Amino acid sequence: MSGASGTPYAAAVLRALLDAGESVDLVVSRASRLTLLDETGIAFRDAHWQDDLREWLARGADGKPGTFAPDIDAVRHWSAGDLAAGPSSGSYPAKGMLIVPASTACVAGVALGLSKDLLQRAASVTLKEGRKLVVSVRETPLNGQTLRHLVTLDDLGAAVVPASPGFYAGATHIQDLVDFVAGRVLDAAGVEHDLYRRWKGDLGAGFDTTN
């Protein structure tokens, strides 16, 4: 997670990854902690990250308590300042990496190979190892500099998935729009989920109602 607005997107992705039986290496940048505090009132603390993560994931996109009871045994948290952490090395086993949400500053750092913190370093490792990197940028409008950085990431093999919800899937709640974006992120990563109804191709009756 980087410091862009959009912590509900990150929560939806994390919940879906855990539901899919995936193990997760979680890195929360310093700026993202400030955003999480601003958007949810939760202070993500290294010493109490399990309790903070459970509280956060149990909430819906509206900030109200939900029904999800997260089992976070499959989550390993790494401090963003720990450049000796497992994900900083290409020999550390990983399928890929998702940056949700991705700030323009994070996009720039990864595109330029700055590796100023563990988030950027892990992204650089993901690219050099030929693993899937999915970047869900959350900013508008996008200036030319950021667009060039996104093109660079695309050239390097990353999937750029803007946090841009689609309205064709019959959304009736904020969580539906959040889940659509989270689902598209997971699609790009090759992770199965049932977060949104898929389009089947017929106007007026084109939804796959099995999901």
What does this structure look like?
The protein has 211 residues and is α/β, with parallel strands linked by helices. The protein has a single domain, classed as Flavin prenyltransferase-like (Rossmann fold). Helix content is 38%, strand content 14%. The strands form three sheets. Strands 3-4-5 form a three-stranded parallel beta sheet, with helices on both faces. A two-stranded parallel ribbon has the order 1-2. Strand 4, helix 6 and strand 5 form a beta-alpha-beta unit. Helix 4 crosses helix 6. The chain is globular and about 40 Å long. The model has no long low-confidence stretch (mean pLDDT 93).
Which CATH architecture? 3-Layer(aba) Sandwich
Shape field: globular
Under CATH, the topology can be stated as: Rossmann fold
Roughly what is the average pLDDT, rounded to an integer? 93
Which range best describes the helical content: under 10%, 10-25%, 25-40%, 40-55%, 55-70% or over 70%? 25-40%
Distance between the termini: 27 Å
Radius of gyration over all CA atoms, rounded: 17 Å
According to DSSP, the number of beta strands is 7
Counted up, domains total 1
In percent, how much strand structure appears in the residues?
5-15%
Secondary-structure-based class equals alpha/beta
Strand order of the largest sheet: 3-4-5
Largest beta sheet, briefly? Answer: 3 strands, parallel
- Give me the number of helical elements: 7
State the low-pLDDT regions, or none: none
**What's the level 1 CATH class?**
Alpha Beta
CATH superfamily: Flavin prenyltransferase-like
Instruction: Provide the succession of SSEs.
Output: HEHHEEHHEHEHEE
